[in-house]
Each structure stands twice: as structure tokens, then as C-alpha cells.
Write a structure and sequence with these properties.
mainly alpha
Length: about 70
């Protein structure tokens, strides 16, 4: 592996950083809103699945438990 001097390394790093395309404020806002919406929908979905499983298990245990 070839070694480069620190000055060349810094120049290469600056050249690579200049190629970065940073997102706009609007893109960041929309992406954040979409993440929040998807996380909320996922939470609601798993809450409903949990409720269905809990109700099913409670019904089965009540039926077979006799209480």
C-alpha cells in the first residue's frame, strides 16, 4: 500500500467533501415527517396485533381454564 504525505491526504479529503450533495431543508423536513408517520403506523399496527393476540389467548385460557 502506497503512503501519501499528510498534505496530499488533506487535499484529497477536501476534494471528496466538495463532491457531497447536502440535502435541502425541505428534503430533511419531508423525510423527518415521513419517518414519524411510518413509526406511528408501525406502533399502531403492533399495538393492534398485541391486542388481538392478548384477546385470543385470554379467550382460550378462559375457555379451557373454567374461570
Amino acid at each position: 500500500m502506497a503512503t501519501t504525505n499528510p498534505l496530499t491526504f488533506i487535499q484529497q479529503v477536501r476534494a471528496e467533501v466538495a463532491k457531497i450533495v447536502w440535502p435541502t431543508r425541505r428534503e430533511v423536513t419531508l423525510t423527518s415527517i415521513m419517518v414519524f408517520i411510518m413509526a406511528s403506523l408501525t406502533a399502531v399496527f403492533f399495538a393492534l396485533v398485541d391486542l388481538a393476540i392478548r384477546s385470543g389467548l385470554t379467550g382460550i385460557l378462559t375457555y379451557f381454564g373454567g374461570s
